[in-house]
Amino acid sequence: MDERQRTRRPGGRSARVGAQVHQAVTALISERGYGHFTVGEVAARAGVADSSIYRRWGSLEDLLSEVALARLNAQSPMPDTGSLSGDLHTYAANVAREITGPDGLALVRLAVALTGTGTGQQDRLGRQARDSLRDERTRQLQSMLDRAVERGEKAPAPLDVLDHVLAPMYIRVLFGMELTPGYVDGLVDRLL
Amino acid sequence: MDERQRTRRPGGRSARVGAQVHQAVTALISERGYGHFTVGEVAARAGVADSSIYRRWGSLEDLLSEVALARLNAQSPMPDTGSLSGDLHTYAANVAREITGPDGLALVRLAVALTGTGTGQQDRLGRQARDSLRDERTRQLQSMLDRAVERGEKAPAPLDVLDHVLAPMYIRVLFGMELTPGYVDGLVDRLL
């Protein structure tokens, strides 16, 4: 579809507002960090009304989670290479590239920011948004693993991939260790 | 040693200052979060001169890292049970208890705060402090594993413990998942 068609399609305005709001959130996170801006500031930056944001996203926490999910889906989409080994190696390599890049700790920062320990409404909303982000990525990973099972391959559970492929990579980056391609491939091979 | 002896021993003043400074740092982290207080504020809270802090700790980053290490050593010390399996199960259970408790994400928060992506002096100091904290804990873990080898047991490398026991627990807590004793024991059993 060319640009003219894209801007004409029904829902074009909604998509444009979505993009503006996502862009505003990304800019505010990078300038101030999580927890240091409000829905009103996102709305002002995006040129929309506060009420549009609340109506569409419900809360700042849900908006933050959606922006993070969009980033993950764009930068580490679930591959479909035709084999489980190919899918997991590709996925792990994409995640490794993403988390060793500029602001590679974005997802960890978000999870920390959303994980309040209090019992108030904002802390509850934060934990809910974190959980729904986690659940959505788990569903995507499950689909990739289901395709393997449908092809007759033996697949691990999504949480095994989290525990033994994703978690080590995240913790190594968090503590300043290098991720070599050999190391990343080794994590996948060990799991398979 | 009773309280009277403790306060009389050589180095008693230095130990007292150390404790006051650690307490001040812990309080400021909990009130304001990392990155939102200065050496001057730590000094004022602890009732010592700024210069004493710089002389003893070098930088705020090194002080933060020392406080975190002291907390880790107090709350998840390396066990010495007489067997590798006993040591690793005990260690993993201690870490699990610690990171599921109040402010269990303290170490993750610190690592995120110390991992600046810039090239300025403060970012460099932060990364150095993070690396020296990691290296010190790795040395402690290595000693525990060395004891197993001396007893004739076959031990994993410290980074295998990090990758396949510690990392999954941290990532699960970060994303709001429960750590059951069975799960934690299973991680250790799988590694051994």
Q: What is this entry, summarized?
A:
2 copies of one chain form a homodimer. The first copy, chain A, is mainly alpha-helical and 192 residues long. Chain A has helices at 3-8, 12-32, 39-46, 50-57, 60-75, 84-99, 106-114, 121-150, 158-174, 181-191.
Characterise the protein shown here.
The structure is a homodimer of 192-residue chains. Chain A is mainly alpha-helical and 192 residues long. The first copy, chain A, folds into 2 domains: 9-58, Arc Repressor Mutant, subunit A, CATH 1.10.10; 59-191, Tetracycline Repressor, domain 2 (Orthogonal Bundle). Chain A is 74% helix and 0% strand. The first copy, chain A, contains 10 helices and no strands.
Mean of the pLDDT scores of chain A? 89
Looking at the structure, the CATH topology of the largest domain in chain A is Tetracycline Repressor, domain 2
* Largest interface, C-beta closer than 8 angstroms, per-chain residues: A-B, 27 and 27 residues
CATH class of the largest domain in chain A: Mainly Alpha
**Rg of chain A (CA only):** 18 Å
- The H-and-E topology of chain A, N to C, reads as HHHHHHHHHH
What sort of overall outline of chain A do the alpha carbons produce when their principal axes are compared? globular
Major pleated sheet of chain A:
none
Q: Report the oligomer.
A: homodimer
Question: Could you tell me the strand content of chain A as a percent range?
Answer: under 5%
Task: Name the structural class of chain A.
Answer: mainly alpha
Question: Distance N terminus to C terminus of chain A?
Answer: 40 Å
